Amino acid sequence: MKKFRKENEVDDLDFDNLEFEEEAIEIEEKKDDKKKLGKIILNIVLILAIIKLGSNVFQRYYFNEFYYKAPNLLGLNIEEAKKTISHSALNIREMGEVYSDLPYGTVALQEPAEGTIVKRSRNIKVWVSKESPSVFLDDLVGMNYIEASSLLNKNGMKVGEVKRIKSDLPINQIIATSPKSGEPISRGQKFDFLISNGLE
User: Fold this and answer.
1) Is beta strand 123-129 parallel, antiparallel or unpaired with respect to 91-98?
2) Where are the domains of the chain?
3) Tens digit of pLDDT for each residue in 61-100?
4) Taking every annotated instance into account, which residue ranges of this chain make up the domain PASTA (predicted)?
5) What percent of the chain has pLDDT over 70?
6) How far apart are CA 126 and CA 96, in angstroms?
């Protein structure tokens, strides 16, 4: 016999289907919310990246076009200094000579200093190391020849004749020099060496 349900009787099956549909809708809504949030975050990141990139491009263009960092010219001879300056829109201006510990004929002083931000076409003033009337070096006898050569170069002097003799002293150790240590030496003067060649 066919049974009929009452008007106020709840169909359990329909109720279950309704709950399932509501859960499915909630899941879809959450997925949509996540997608929207992801798009918003992505858009924000893209906007920030574009702003950053634009700022960097502008700064690089503006800085390279109108402003420069003063290069380091100290220790360079005047021709090397001019070549270095030629790579930028700056100018070099020779101001004269000064006494300095740097080798004779090299840039001993510059203004403005290295790293200073300057405008395009700014003059970089340089002073060249002046030749000292005389220099007194420490005793080179007993030093290694390579170290002594480096010391001479730093003081604006040159290596002259080098003679090697058999000796029980270590190879390349200086036995004698000309001029002798303690004598006044002019910058640019040549130094002759007598050095050990060992016992071989």
Assistant:
1) parallel
2) 26-63, 67-129, 135-196
3) 555 557 888 999 999 999 999 999 988 889 999 999 887 7
4) 64-130, 131-197
5) 71
6) 8
Residue 99: exposure state from Cβ atoms within 10 A (0-12, 13-18, ≥19)? exposed
Q: Token digits for 157? A: 């002097």
Q: What is the SS3 string spanning 69-123? A: ECCCCCCCEHHHHHHHHCCCCCEEEEEEEECCCCCCCEEEEEECCCCCEEECCCE
One-letter amino acid at 126 equals V
132-143: pLDDT as tens digits: 656 667 788 899
C-alpha closest to that of 145 among 76, 184, 194? 194
CA distance 148 to 154: 10
Domain 135-196 has CATH 3.30.10.20: yes
Residues 6 or more apart in contact with residue 150 via CB below 8 angstroms:
none
Amino acid letter for position 112: P
Q: Confirm whether 67-129 and 135-196 share one CATH topology.
A: yes
